[in-house]
Specification:
There is one protein chain. Strand 3, helix 7 and strand 4 form a beta-alpha-beta unit. A 5-stranded parallel beta sheet has the order 2-3-4-1-5, with helices on both faces. It starts with a helix and ends with a helix. The protein is elongated. 60% of the residues lie in helices and 10% in strands. It is built from 10 helices and 5 strands.
């Protein structure tokens, strides 16, 4: 009888321990989910308000080219783990108002929701920050550069615009842009570059080395339709 009582007590004790472990695991899981949800909310806050919460269904399709690009982006998102292994980049080119930034931020938000690290850098701002750090010290510059290497997916908007004559990128801008893109290229990270110029104009403004690294194992997508904004104004 005494042995049975001891065994019963041990069994209840083990059951209690198992329940406690299960409770701790569930609490830890919920806390991780809460932290992740908060991180996603912070990431989404970086998206301009007009594009916040947008999904692929919101991307308007009127032409066959738009449908083709939308399907490419849909597959890019769905297979991003494979795209990241291969370092597949994207280049969106076309006239202003054709939906390049909107579609890029749809990708950004979808990948953030899927748990990938993402970044979005508007025109010139990231280059100015890099230059400031370059003047400060090598350590400061490398630290800033490393921030951009922590993102699995990084959008660089309006990369062909600069502070040089006729809004061409200045030499220092071209140099820093190549430094950043090359660093991500060597690590097989995915970069999406956006330009309001044609492919030929990109080559003239940025140089072959920069553009080649973006399209070597990536896709160049031309947004060759009329501006949505002009259509809305008609």
């Amino acid at each position: 009888m005494e042995g049975q009582a001891i065994n019963s007590l041990q069994a209840r004790h083990m059951a209690f321990i198992n329940e406690l472990d299960a409770f701790r695991e569930e609490s830890s899981r919920r806390e991780l989910e809460k932290c992740r949800a908060e991180q996603i909310r912070e990431i989404i806050q970086n998206v301009p308000l007009r594009f916040r919460g947008k999904e692929l269904v919101d991307f308007r399709v009127d032409f066959s080219t738009q449908h083709k690009i939308k399907k490419i982006v849909e597959r890019y998102i769905a297979t991003f783990t494979d795209r990241l292994k291969a370092g597949n980049c994207l280049v969106f080119c076309g006239k202003p108002g054709t939906g390049k930034t909107m579609l890029s931020l749809i990708i950004y938000q979808a990948l953030a929701q899927a748990g990938f690290t993402v970044g979005y850098e508007p025109s010139l701002q990231f280059l100015r920050r890099l230059r400031e750090k370059e003047f400060e010290s090598d350590a400061a510059f490398n630290s800033q550069l490393n921030m951009y290497l922590q993102k699995s997916f990084l959008i660089l908007d309006e990369i062909t615009e600069g502070v040089g004559k006729s809004c061409y990128p200045a030499d220092w801008e071209r140099k820093l842009l190549l430094t950043l893109i090359n660093a991500r290229y060597e690590r097989q990270l995915c970069t999406l570059a956006i330009s309001n110029m044609s492919k030929q104009a990109m080559l003239e403004r940025l140089g072959d080395p920069t553009v080649d690294r973006l399209i070597e194992n990536g896709l160049f997508l031309a947004f060759d339709w009329h501006s949505y904004r002009k259509q809305q104004g008609e």
